[in-house]
Amino acid sequence: MCVLDFADSWDSKLPLVEFAYNNSYQASIEMAPYEALYGRKCRSPIHWDYVSERTEIGPDIIEQTSESIKRIRDRMKTAHIRQKSYADSHRRDLNFEIGDHVFLKVAPMKGFMRFGRKGKLSPRFVGPFQIQKIIGTLAYRLALPPEMSAVHNVFHISALRKYVANASHVLRH
Fold first, then answer.
1. Whole-model pTM above 0.85?
2. What is the pLDDT averaged over residues 109-114?
């Protein structure tokens, strides 16, 4: 959304921005946030201004408000498309098969403690581990060694990195 659209009066348009956002369809929840919260669609308010600041009455304010909401929704849609394309450009397509070997990404401070080491300079990946089963499209069950029995063996694809067979890459856990 661009503040330049409203120039000097952007702060007076904040309620419109909030209204437009709360009543715009969100793909993640498959409805508008207002509808998710209250269980019904929102009825458009006729005015948001304070009683002491009423300068427009009737159809003029409805038309102006509707135009502002449309402009805000268009800007939100444009911002969403831009953010999605940026995120997609950094995304990598990974597909693993049963029997492939992968490294497992671990958090440097808390996650690696499970594997007996801790610290910022600890390896970011451990393994390699063999994929036992594909669960859905984004999760994989790994064959973990017995000493890692306390760790759940199903991981999201973002926590895995393909193993390229090279003995110098393998770190013992």
1. no
2. 53
